[in-house]
Amino acid sequence: MRLFAIGVLLVIGEAGGAQSAPASPYTLDIRRDYQGVRDYFIRAAEKMPEGKYEFRPSPDVRSFAQQVAHVADDQYNLCSAAKGEHRQAPYTDIESRLSKKADLVPALKDAFAYCDAVYDATTDVTGLEPSAGMKGRSKFSYLNWNLWHTWEHYGNIVVYLRMNGLVPPSSEKQPAPARKPPATDEDRGDR
Fold it and tell me: Cα-Cα-Cα-Cα dihedral of 51, 53, 58, 59, to 10°?
């Protein structure tokens, strides 16, 4: 009887919890993190002046333009596997073709838009499905790979921005919330 009562409580608890918990909490978390780095990366690409797109801290690393192009390429390379597709363009298509800010910022936004659709379509259930990429990797694996890879390169371009006297988007001061004026006697209903 005691086991039956525990079982009933568990079923009731799960039913009640299912109503209050989001349908795909893991997907919501990874999507929120992705959106954060996406927004920082785009703002950084927009912030760097065109004349600094060829800047590189040392001769043996990618230029700022190449960093932006590389991240744009990998939005397609990694999210296509999570979407169940194989990218038709070469692995470094954007990095091989584009180097100007006027071309790269729109290409970056398009690449992120491609990934947005993949993140938006993924649920906790579909994320566990096998990907179109390497054998044994789930769709979540590719979305996670894309997330940490984008953060890694955002970290690179933060240095590029700072070396050029610019504040990275993730370090910009946030506007203070508007303050309400103190309540008056009239606001409180005192007359």
Answer: -100
Q: Is 69 exposed, middle or buried (0-12, 13-18, 19+ CB in 10 A)?
A: buried
DSSP the chain: -HHHHHHHHHHHHHHHHHHHS-S-HHHHHHHHHHHHHHHHHHHHHHHS-GGGTT--SSTTS--HHHHHHHHHHHHHHHHHHHHT----S-TTHHHHH--SHHHHHHHHHHHHHHHHHHHHH--TTGGGSB-SSSTT-BHHHHHHHHHHHHHHHHHHHHHHHHHTT---GGGSPPPPPPPPPPPPTTTTT--
What are the structural domains, with CATH classification, of the chain? 23-170 (1.20.120.450)
| pLDDT tens digits, 40-60 | 999 999 999 999 999 999 999
pLDDT of residue 174: 78
- Report the predicted TM-score, pTM, of the whole model to 2 decimal places: 0.80
Which of left, alpha, beta for 140 (phi over 0: left; psi -120 to 50: alpha)? alpha
